[in-house]
């Protein structure tokens, strides 16, 4: 009886937490409808896919600062920077770009200092992320000012509390859409039955959207049960240790759901050590170079691949429109496309996806 009551309380707490987190953000379609941005969003997406058209006019050189959590194994952040620069160059924009790489989750104090410096240095456009709760406080200080104009990367769900006073642009690849694609793959592959584990990044936005939402979707659409959950701070070594720990308890789980590239590579190392590659499924998240290599080598079973360079192009095109006085043509959100890449994919198909995803960055993001 007591166990049943405890389970009920835990379930009620989980539902309450999910509802609270859901209420913080607009879904993409919901926000676009809320702001009547259907047409400008459609037009902007078309502009991203076209060749660059030179800027009509520019009165002064603009300063752009990127504060990225780029000290990771994934090449997403460097590719973002390269595609952004190349599109700015093609557009003929006169700019100065300053790049700062920080460690994800653990350097919020460093990040806050860099944001304050960007404001003091009269920055025109600031590109940052929103993952930890502390980030929101920094961001609110910035969007209350006229300068710098803020681009939030790796988030596509506007915060409700900011209503229409939003950052200049949200840009990235919707975490929930990508995670649901992976969930559908796992449900089909396992026939919806069995146990699995989830390895999160840190306690924040990305873990919620990629991890918690994944579990919620799987539970609603299958009989799969999550039996282990770990936070890893996006550390490959911590992911490896977490995997070894969970395997001591359950070596019959069907798959390990990894919320990032670094985590996936740590899981793979542990599976290699235990000779369980191919017996327990593992995914990547993002489809960068290291993940695609792991797919080709047969160590990774599936990844959701971002059409990576579109986000850099979107940032450049938004700045161009703003400089031309056409800010009203910039939607609040740009969310890029995904493709599933499975182990055994034909070489020709993979090359086709790489050409599309890395149209500006193949062999350049090193």
From TrEMBL:
Pfam families: Peripla_BP_4. InterPro entries: Peripla_BP_I, SBP_2_dom. Residues 1-20 form the signal peptide. Residues 64-325 form the Periplasmic binding protein domain. Keywords: Signal. It is found in: Cell envelope. Belongs to the bacterial solute-binding protein 2 family. PANTHER family: D-ALLOSE-BINDING PERIPLASMIC PROTEIN-RELATED (PTHR46847:SF1). This is Substrate-binding domain-containing protein. It comes from Arcobacter roscoffensis.
